[in-house]
Amino acid sequence: MRFMILVRATPETETEADTLFSDTALMAAMTDYHDALAKAGVLLDAAGLKPSAAGWRVRYAGDRRTVIDGPFAETKELLAGYTLIQVRSRDEAMEWARRFPNPMGAGADAEIEVRPLYEAEDLPAALTQSQTPQPDAAQA
To answer: Strand runs (DSSP E) across 1-120, as ranges?
Structure first.
């Protein structure tokens, strides 16, 4: 089972300032945590996200697409980073999530969210059946 640990953005993570990166205790705690995940063989990926000012959204209205450049005002709807793990159970994912260091530093207000990913067995069989590749006309 795969789970994504999502770190909610704050006004501090939305600034260009490197204030979070200058917190050596936080960086050490995050490194230790992710090293423990890797040693346990459950870490698939992890990264911090740049502020929304560096990104964009694509809004769909029927067949029309509109690109909206960041920054985005509602930080409570934004993400600052993620950790992707693969574990045997929801309980194991919860154990790892409880060990996640406070992503904003000791004593700060912060929030993480943990969500399971869809796996092949969660999808209808028609979507997961292996399709036999068809040769190109040029190869036929």
So the answer is: 2-8, 43-48, 56-61, 64-69, 79-86, 112-116
DSSP letters spanning 35-63: HHHHHTT-EEEEEE---GGG-EEEEEETT
Residue 106 CA to residue 47 CA, distance in Å, equals 20
Two structure tokens written together for 106:
């000791």
Distance of alpha carbon 13 from alpha carbon 139, whole angstroms = 52
The token pair at 103 is 């992503």
What pTM did the predictor assign? 0.83
What letter does residue 137 receive in the DSSP assignment?
T
pLDDT in tens, 69-83: 999 988 778 999 999
Q: Tell me the residue type at 23.
A: D
Secondary element (H or E) of residue 123: none
112: burial class by Cβ within 10 Å (0-12, 13-18, 19+)? middle
Pick from 87, 80, 82, 70: nearest CA to 1: 87
